[in-house]
Design brief:
The protein has about 160 residues and is of the alpha/beta class. The chain folds into two domains: about 100 residues, Rossmann fold, CATH 3.40.50.2300; about 60 residues. The chain contains six helices and four strands. Strands 2-1-3-4 form a four-stranded parallel sheet, with helices on both faces. Helix 2 packs parallel to helix 4 and helix 5 packs antiparallel against helix 6. The relative contact order is 0.11.
């Protein structure tokens, strides 16, 4: 979702153009205070700020920026920029956001893969070592062999499943 913050009268036209160009829903705010309230209660991909408004009210701008979350801020001077530039800047920001999300997912997948592999390796090693110990009742040995087989299957499933994430 895109947040468009500007006091200009044609903000609804700008919002409609952004929605058509990006396919993303667009919410508008006339003031920075209204934008801050929306940022506190919603989740946005991009937050477009009127540069003139941001320069005129730096404290309110800072407050709004504190509530961006994962939204990428875009500042644009509506007084000199046309719809084409607005759309181009938002598309670039969306592309950046999507790239950042892909990188974040890959890093999380890599971290999970490492943690799971460590745990499964420990489980496999413990089962193998336990099976080397003599003197267990036959039922315990069967259960350890079954646990080892299950851990091997788990490793294969995790490797296959985490490659998809």
């Amino acid at each position: 979702m895109i947040l468009l913050v500007t006091p200009i009268e044609s903000r609804d036209t700008c919002a409609a153009s952004l929605k058509e160009a990006t396919g993303e829903p667009v919410v508008t705010a006339e003031t920075l205070a209204e934008a801050t309230t929306l940022l506190r209660t919603g989740s946005y991909t991009i937050a477009v700020f009127d540069q003139h408004l941001a320069e005129r009210e730096p404290h309110e701008t800072d407050t709004a920026f504190e509530h961006l979350g994962s939204a990428i801020p875009v500042q644009i001077n509506f007084a000199i920029s046309g719809l084409e530039r607005l759309v181009r800047e938002v598309r670039l920001a969306l592309r950046r956001w999507k790239q950042e999300q892909a990188i974040t997912r890959e890093e999380a997948s890599r971290a999970l893969r490492g943690e799971f592999n460590d745990t499964v390796t420990t489980l496999l090693l413990d089962c193998e070592l336990a099976l080397d110990v003599e003197g267990f009742p036959e039922k315990v040995t069967e259960l350890l062999a079954s646990a080892l087989e299950t851990a091997q299957k788990l490793r294969a499933q995790l490797e296959a499943g985490l490659a998809i994430i």
